Amino acid sequence: MPLDIYSTAAQLKAIELMPPEYTFLYDTFAKDAGTVEDTEAIYDFRKGVKQMAPIVVPGTGGVAMARSGYETRRIGFCTVAPERIINATDIVKRAFGENVLGAMTPEQREKKLLAEDMVEMRKAIQRRREHMARMVLLTGKLDVFRYTSEGRDKETLLVADYGFTNVYTPATAWDEATAKIDYDMHKMYDLVYDGLGYVDIIVMAPDVADAMLENAKYVKQFDSKNIDMGAINTKYRGQGVRFIGWNSDGAEMYSFSGKFLDEDGTMKYVLPSGTVIMGGRGVLNCPHGPVMQTSGYGEEMIIKYYIKKEVPFRIGNADTNVIKNRLTSSPTIVPFNVDAWAVGNVL
Length: 347
Hints:
This protein is α+β, with helices and mostly antiparallel strands.
């Protein structure tokens, strides 16, 4: 029996064979925490605390130390469900890039559109994951707009507030000649270290990188591995990412000029002007919840749950002669230690 390429099972197999979509901020600071069957993610939350061992009188035994406290919390999953509609016009007319003579049949065009839409919807979901990671990194909160069939909610929904406090503002902005850039980096590093985190990467907005590399005092003390006959060897890595070099603590430094289309319809930088993020890779977890799908009507309605990161669904409407292809995902973002990174507002 031939495989029905439009079935959820067949499309799930196709999605699992596709390489994951890459976004710099998410793939640097977040890691996939798998899928769970519950409708909420249960996680242990803590803030880093360092204790000093007590001094005791010899022969009197020891003194009990309190264990590092943590809270067990629950957080709901966000439902992300982009759709693409295919109607008769889309499959009858010549497709973009198709031979002018129209070599494809309507059925072939429909299959081609399905494949293209699936790729684009996966990219859109990954951009949403990155935006969620961006919010948690910059603010320690997860605020989301939700959409209904009538449109977007008027107010954001606060999914979680993780109590992030590692925000640093230097005494002198980095675009000033007297800025103490290396000193400020050390202070941010100390914030992370005191929170029991570690720093191996520094990501900065383009204007921050420009200010840093134009500061004569900082360039003079810049690690010699980054200097070639007096020039900084920045290397473009794609998606707006430029590798600058290593700071004095050995952390990799990157400039990131990536943009996204915000909820208000305007293009914005992923990293706001003047922003630096310093921390370790994978400081955030991204678990996924189950996806529920229904089919049929009334007593014949069937409900299925999928424990998958992304679940496709095909819906046909005989009354309007349109087909909807939907891809649903239920991600959320959870830090394993909210003190494991720091944000600098340096301009």
